[in-house]
């Protein structure tokens, strides 16, 4: 069983993520602690927020008072609701959160049942719950629960198996929820150092992203827009402001994450695995399709950017094991776009009419064209307070940037 622990500032965001799954019929509430259960069994986020808020003191010093945990059994483990509830409650008790208010959600939006738990890291006196060696203690607890319930051990499970995200499908509607349910987990999971690398990651899930910046009436602005894409990488909806999805999807948070990612990638030497696998694949293969298959077998996706002449001008590798996104140039001069342009051209593979080729959990999809700066005013989004719902948008917002006509560029993985 794999446990993933996330901490944050927005209780509303954590509850809304799970409640959205409930509303869509992909999740249900299994149990609560110190959170009142309505007689009709229909929970509302506002009521739950009130219960959590009554527990919290008016002042506390913890920067991130919210904890969001996912417990993911092995796919071969078939557990009843009662067993999942017992596992969730025992885990929280052993981790030190047994006396805290929390809610346990069962998710069934992927093939394997798993649970999410939302709780508080601050007690009723404003003191932070002890998180010393929390990840190590969590691992020991999951191993103990595996033995008690006869579960498969966590070893052998793919890293990231707890987040098998569903690509956005324009035909299913409610695109704001679909996009938010992909963008937010990806931001928690992956490390990237540029907007282009993040855009390449999003393209795997039929999501486009563009930066908008400029100045209107003496005021400068800098924001992010997200869009649903079709199989040809074309937008299928009006772009959605990051402020609608939440603080963590905006420019300020992205820039902070990119800086932190750069430090982590360097200190943990996260490029080494990707560089070695790519180098070996280049030696073993001669065509783009074979190269992609070689990388896919090692848990790496390739995203290429091509111009109208089919020339490669951008290369990005997405390592799902290390959860890191790397432009080819970051791996060294031997992995630049020019090198791969010559590499595939010399192979003689006909790529004039590229088609998508995906393996594993990914579906057919293609990334959008590179976004360019727009010149309309976009609000970068207000901050989510700890106990407040998403802020209402102004009654009258400035229009979205006018869509520019631009050259057609092919993205994504092509065979």
TrEMBL record:
Q: Which residues form the MobA/VirD2-like nuclease domain?
A: 17-151
User: Which InterPro entries would you find in this protein's record?
Assistant: Endonuclease_MobA/VirD2
Q: Which NCBIfam families match?
A: Bacteroid_MobB
Name it.
Mobilization protein
Spans of biased composition, class Polar residues?
A: 368-385
Query: Locations of Basic residues compositional bias?
Result: 401-415
Q: Where is this region: Disordered?
A: 350-415
């Amino acid at each position: 069983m794999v446990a993933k622990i996330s901490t944050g500032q927005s209780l509303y965001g954590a509850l809304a993520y799970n409640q959205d799954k409930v509303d869509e019929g992909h999740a249900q509430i299994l149990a609560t602690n110190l959170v009142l259960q309505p007689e009709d069994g229909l929970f509302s986020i506002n009521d739950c927020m009130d219960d959590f808020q009554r527990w919290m003191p008016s002042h506390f010093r913890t920067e991130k008072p919210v904890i969001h945990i996912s417990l993911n059994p092995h796919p071969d483990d078939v557990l009843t609701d009662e067993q999942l509830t017992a596992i969730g409650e025992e885990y929280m008790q052993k981790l030190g959160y047994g006396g805290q208010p929390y809610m346990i959600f069962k998710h069934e939006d992927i093939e394997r049942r798993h649970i999410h738990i939302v709780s508080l890291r601050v007690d009723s006196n404003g003191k932070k719950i002890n998180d010393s060696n929390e990840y190590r203690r969590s691992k020991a607890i999951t191993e103990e629960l595996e033995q008690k319930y006869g579960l498969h051990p966590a070893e052998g499970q793919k890293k990231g198996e707890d987040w098998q995200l569903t690509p956005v499908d324009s035909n299913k509607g409610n695109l704001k929820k679909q996009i938010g349910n992909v963008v937010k987990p990806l931001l928690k999971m992956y490390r990237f150092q540029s907007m282009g690398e993040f855009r390449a990651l999003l393209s795997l899930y039929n999501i486009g992203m563009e930066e908008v910046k400029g100045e209107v009436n003496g005021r400068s602005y800098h924001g992010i827009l997200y869009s649903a894409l079709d199989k040809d990488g074309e937008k299928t909806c009006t772009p959605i402001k990051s402020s609608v999805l939440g603080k963590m999807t905006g420019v300020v948070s992205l820039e902070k994450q990119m800086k932190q990612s750069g430090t982590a990638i360097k200190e943990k030497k996260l490029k080494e695995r990707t560089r070695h696998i790519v180098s070996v694949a280049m030696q073993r293969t001669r065509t783009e399709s074979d190269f992609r298959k070689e990388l896919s077998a090692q848990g790496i996706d390739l995203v290429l950017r091509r111009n109208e002449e089919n020339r490669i001008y951008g290369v990005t590798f997405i390592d799902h094991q290390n959860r890191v996104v790397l432009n080819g140039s970051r791996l060294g001069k031997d992995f630049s776009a020019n090198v791969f342009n010559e590499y595939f051209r010399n192979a003689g593979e006909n790529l004039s009419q590229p088609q998508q080729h995906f393996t594993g959990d990914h579906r057919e999809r293609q990334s959008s064209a590179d976004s360019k700066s727009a010149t309309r005013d976009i609000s970068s989004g207000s901050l989510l307070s700890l106990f407040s719902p998403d802020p209402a948008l102004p009654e009258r917002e400035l229009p979205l940037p006018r869509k520019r006509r631009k050259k057609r560029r092919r993205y994504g993985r092509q065979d």
